[in-house]
Predict the structure.
Amino acid sequence: MKLIFEKGAPGQHLSLMPPCDVPEVTLSRPRTEPLNLPHVSETELTRHYTALAKRVHGVNDGFYPLGSCTMKYNPKINEDMAALFSQIHPLQPEETVQGCLEVLHESEKLLGEITGMDAMTFQPAAGAHGEFTGLLLIKAYHARRNDAARTKIIVPDSAHGTNPASAVMAGFTVVNIPSGEDGCVDVEALRGAVGPDTAGLMLTNPNTVGIFDRNILEITRIVHDAGGLCYYDGANLNAVMGVVRPGDMGFDVIHLNLHKTFSTPHGGGGPGSGAVGCKEFLRCFLPGPVVTRDEAGYHLTVPEHSIGRVKDFYGNFSVVVKALTYILTLGREGIPEAARNAVLNANYMMKRLSEKYAMAYAGPCMHEFVMTLQDLKDATGCSAMDIAKGLLDHGIHPPTMYFPLIVHEALMVEPTETESQETMDEVCRVFLDLWDLAHQNPQALHDAPTRTPVRRLDEVGAARNPVLRYTGE
Amino acid sequence: MFLMGTYVPNTAAQQRAMLAALGVDRAEELFAAVPREMLVDRLNLPEGLSELSVRQKVSAMAGKNRVYPTVLRGAGSYRHFIPAVVKSVTGREELVTAYTPYQAEISQGILQSIFEYQTMICALTGMDVSNASVYDGGTAAAEALAMCRDRKRNRAYVSACADPQVIETMRTYCFGSGMALELIPERDGRTDLSAVSLGADAACVYIAQPNYYGNIEDARATGEAAHAAGARFIMGCNPIALAVMETPAACGADIAVGEAQPLGLDVAFGGPYLGYMAATKAMFRKLPGRIVGQTHDAEGNTGYVLTLTAREQHIRREKASSNICSNQALCAFTAGGYMTAMGADGLRQAATLCMSKAHYFAGELEKTGLPRVHTGEYFHEFVTKCGDPVKILRALDENGILGGLPVKDGILWCVTELVTREELDRAVSIIKEVC
């Protein structure tokens, strides 16, 4: 498919703005270089972007069991509601934005109840941004207590790569601890790792292999006893929302991915929202401003010992509107019902796929499970990548590949609660057929996909000779 | 019991059948690993609602906001004309509901759109390489400082004339990383580089162009001074202004960043917006976040992939250049659609309209006794002296006009192409009555 720069012709344009109705002004040192933007008609423009959209697989195009990403259905009412707030300037007088502030305040209250946290900021724009923010809260807390020795963040080896990267951005050094045989935290290893230099622990529960760590209270106690704080990565909250709360597990600070658990669309890689919640004793460190309420209404205030802003204004506000719409829709009963069905669907698929595929850990799982295709690879030469590419030819988005790093030839499957039994049955059949194909005709899988707009792409070549923009050649 | 929209398609009977297949009676049994004492008895949340009731409830909240027909306030968030075609193409559900393009073969639309966006950002800034976006202008600036840091050079010099929110975000990031941040003082609404001496530890100099007060800085001279001290030069530029203003590349910038919200994104109470980042060839491997590259498939077809991933967190973990993972892909797609719709001529026209109307308004305000505080050139924002800002802003407010933002020495006004000459004349006559 041609690039937009290769379409149209000089002189083609849209008619968008009126002539200038005041005397024209120019700068004394104007731009002198040509500005090479596309020049197309409106017809060409819409066809180009429509063609691009057709070369994308979204949740509406089919099953999307991308583990750890919670690709649930994105309700359309959410989009309508967000649009109601599109024309509000972020620096309008407080009394003219009471509706926006109510959205933030109400979302804080409801999400606080769901997570067991006392306060929340919506400034972080994504999960990783939330991690960075939460870790700065931990840093500020220790600094305020003049406890300068606490420089280390403990991270299990199963953690997402953002955890250690965020810890380093927040100025900590990272201590990796190995996971146990069962994929959970090795409690003895944790005990050996904590000490007076421990600033905190980062953990997700259920963990990245889809198992709820039953030792969670002991884990958070060990960290607290050593003087550290506990950070909850909310990537996997969908399994337990309304069932068990991170705040009750002993966590002090948490980030949520509103674009995962709370149904806001991911937009092909953002915008998301990485809301950060914390216990009361950390409230004073939150990025400002936060929303407070008194008899006169809602106000924007900066917490006393705020770490400062992590972003302009109040975060990806429209995303918060969508999440609030979702929570109001599901309500008290719907939230845990969604979690139960997410877990039920995952277990159902796990059971069906166990017929042929090896699971990395024995069940039951929570909202996702990890398969290990090492044996399949040894027997047939077909890797997790090959199976994933085979799925593409059946209109199925593959599971997360090669994560977590501790599982060989990993495929991590997360169906979510919004998939029907019928869809999962069909998908399981495709998975099982591909397992057979791997044994009968492995070359067919090495060659997959064949029905997609492009075949497997040369990633090594792309990195070796980077072509990062169109140059007209 | 009848539950409101959980978006769960499986009926109770289907759920029972699935549970039976698993050999369990109730879904609760699947949570056996959760210690019983931790289970939530009953959430203190309202009951679920029908779509109609949710619509009414959220609409009622939206109704408590005020939408101003005329806006003369910017300060980091700008109301511009957004062609209808932009919303039409960016609302496509495939794009809206997809995740990050990890599976390139079924994500070519997103990947190509980012490649096109990267190309347009390079065209706009004159820089060599753009990334796929970061969260917003503030985080783009903060990430740019980190790109310039090394063992010997750990001090960032930041213009006091930059947006205070951007400066605050930089400070927070520096609190994390341990980088030192020193403000370069302001004089006459511009960066006074003569007031600081760039030492051997100077990693970079950052200025905004136009700056927070709307003023055009002497960027070339600042860049030369930064480079003379062995420091990098970062410019934070308004992307609309770049259509008519000297490019960061022409001014010698090593990194160009900024808030790209003006490129087709709603003001939306502050977000989602779009941080753009572009760098020279010499520095592009330090760019954070996703970058899309062109390549080909086994049959020789051109295609696009996420590339240079060895910089990123999922490969490098604690050694990554940044932790960024999700960015603002749909916003970048929107900006690409906007720039395509506008074209070079359209973007220049928008910039010229903004700037000319701002100058017209400044002239009229001066006639009413509100002269500019600063001298020299400016783009579409400017600060005027003001006896009683509260009185002026209230009078405008009562007439459906969101006036400028009160700042240190007066009021910071902004005029974009959306405001007509009649609206400006009306604003002036309202101000005349109260001054």
Q: What stands out?
A: Chain A has 14 helices and twelve strands. Chain A has two domains: 76-330, 337-459. The two ends of chain A are 16 Å apart (CA to CA).
